[in-house]
């Protein structure tokens, strides 16, 4: 049987949401006898190491990453030359390699679209973003994606609506495949949980630990949660808060600003910022309640799925892809986005009633393994690759 080679093109070599979904899919593709995976990323990092440890070929090459800084007169003028150079380098890197499908993972990468068009290869664009601004980009991208893509895959219905509704032709080639995830690691031993809470978090065993896991940026809701926590700790002195994650390169000031606010509120002993952790399951097992207070709609919200696979009660903002993962009052609690009072109310409910918290966590786990399994996720892609 002929083996199809899938060329994945991705924007980074980190291990956050879209990076993880790329790894899981590429790994399963490579383990399927009908397919072979090659991954293109722009630089070295933990994702490259993980891919190569799983015998997946990795190519370091420019991917032409879309960013807001690109949309200046100077950069727009330079863009065709940048795309030409990146496409040429990719052609050189793949010389004598037959590629059957190009899978551009996120809207942020452009080189895959041009490489596939130049070489007349089937192109799949996998959308992980909700773009609402700048306006020119939100209007332009549906046309670009439609022109360059055979099939467009969205990681949630919220993502699909944000893009395909703006272009009728695009809607006809659009498919939603909700992200999938398995927990490969066993539950963390109690002794190790105690060590993490004591040595990493520096909290006591009796404390109720709230956790926000994810990249530190302007819209994940770190300041909203910190402001809410300041109010909650006045009533509940046994609660603690951890922020797990780092800022994007060049935006380290965001961590500094968050730390300064923690100091201003005099919460240094109750609130900790812990850099990105590779072994995230041990962290999830050491947290009591997961909070996802994103102030802008999450395209999907993989951290909610991770928390559910760790049987943790989830409090999440009621917009974007999170609404497709968390069932309010069944597998978690949803609050009105950016509404501090409602966020406080929902967190308080879990602090006061441990039974409700445990029940939501258990039902969340059941929903995660039933509706969001990695097998289900990958089999949907295999069907598309086989067309």
Descriptive labels:
about 15% strand; Rossmann fold; seven-stranded parallel sheet; about 375 residues; 2 domains; six-stranded parallel sheet; globular
Overview of the molecule:
The structure is a single chain. By secondary structure, the protein is of the alpha/beta class. The chain is built from 16 helices and 13 strands. The strands form two sheets. It has a seven-stranded parallel beta sheet with strand order 3-2-1-4-5-6-7, with helices on both faces. Strands 10-9-8-11-12-13 form a six-stranded parallel beta sheet, with helices on both faces. α1 (17-31) packs across α16 and α12 crosses α15 (354-371). The mean pLDDT is 94.
Q: TL;DR?
A:
This protein has 387 residues and is α/β, with parallel strands linked by helices. 46% of the residues lie in helices and 17% in strands.
Describe the biggest sheet?
7 strands, parallel
Q: Could you tell me the radius of gyration in angstroms?
A: 21 Å
* CATH homolog superfamily of the largest domain: Glycogen Phosphorylase B
* DSSP summary: helix tally: 16
Oligomeric state as shown:
single chain
Order of helices and strands: EHEHEHEHEHEHHEHEHEHEHEHEHEHHH
Low-pLDDT parts are: none
Report the CATH topology name of the largest domain: Rossmann fold
At the first level of CATH, the class of the largest domain is: Alpha Beta
Q: Give the helix proportion (percent range).
A: 40-55%
**Averaged pLDDT:** 94
In CATH, the architecture of the largest domain is 3-Layer(aba) Sandwich
Q: Taking strands numbered 1, 2, ... along the chain, how are they ordered across the largest sheet?
A: 3-2-1-4-5-6-7
Secondary structure tally: strands: 13
Q: What overall geometry do the principal axes of the alpha carbons give?
A: globular
Q: Domain count, please report it.
A: 2
């Amino acid at each position: 049987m002929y083996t199809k080679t899938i060329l994945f093109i991705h924007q980074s070599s980190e291990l956050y949401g879209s990076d993880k979904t790329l790894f899981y899919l590429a790994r399963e593709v490579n383990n399927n006898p009908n397919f072979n995976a090659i991954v293109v990323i722009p630089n070295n990092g933990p994702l490259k190491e993980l891919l190569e440890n799983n015998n997946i070929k990795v190519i370091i090459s420019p991917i032409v990453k879309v960013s807001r800084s690109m949309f200046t007169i100077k950069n727009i003028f330079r863009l065709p030359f940048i795309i030409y150079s990146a496409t040429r380098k990719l052609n050189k890197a793949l010389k004598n390699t037959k590629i059957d499908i190009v899978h551009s993972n996120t809207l942020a990468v452009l080189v895959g679209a041009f490489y596939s068009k130049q070489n007349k290869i089937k192109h799949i664009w996998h959308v992980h973003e909700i773009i609402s601004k700048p306006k020119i980009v939100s209007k332009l991208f549906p046309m670009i994606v439609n022109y360059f893509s055979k099939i467009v895959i969205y990681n949630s219905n919220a993502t699909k609506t944000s893009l395909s509704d703006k272009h009728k032709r695009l809607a006809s080639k659009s498919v939603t495949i909700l992200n999938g995830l398995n927990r490969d690691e066993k539950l963390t031993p109690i002794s190790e949980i105690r060590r993490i809470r004591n040595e990493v978090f520096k909290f006591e065993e009796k404390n109720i630990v709230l956790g926000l896991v994810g990249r530190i940026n302007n819209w994940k809701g770190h300041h909203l949660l910190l402001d809410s926590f300041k109010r909650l700790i006045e009533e509940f002195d046994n609660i603690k808060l951890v922020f797990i994650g780092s800022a994007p390169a060049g935006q380290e000031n965001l961590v500094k600003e968050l730390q300064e606010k923690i100091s201003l509120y005099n919460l240094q002993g109750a609130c900790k910022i812990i850099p990105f952790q590779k072994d995230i399951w041990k962290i999830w097992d050491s947290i009591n309640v997961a909070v996802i207070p994103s102030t802008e709609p999450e395209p999907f919200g993989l951290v909610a799925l991770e928390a559910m696979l760790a049987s943790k009660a989830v409090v999440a903002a009621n917009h974007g892809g999170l609404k497709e993962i968390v069932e309010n009052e069944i597998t978690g609690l949803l609050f009105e986005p950016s509404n501090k009072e409602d966020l406080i109310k929902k967190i308080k409910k879990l602090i006061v009633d441990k039974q409700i918290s445990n029940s939501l966590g258990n039902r969340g786990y059941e929903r995660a393994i039933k509706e969001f399994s990695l097998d289900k996720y990958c089999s949907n892609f295999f069907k598309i690759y086989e067309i």
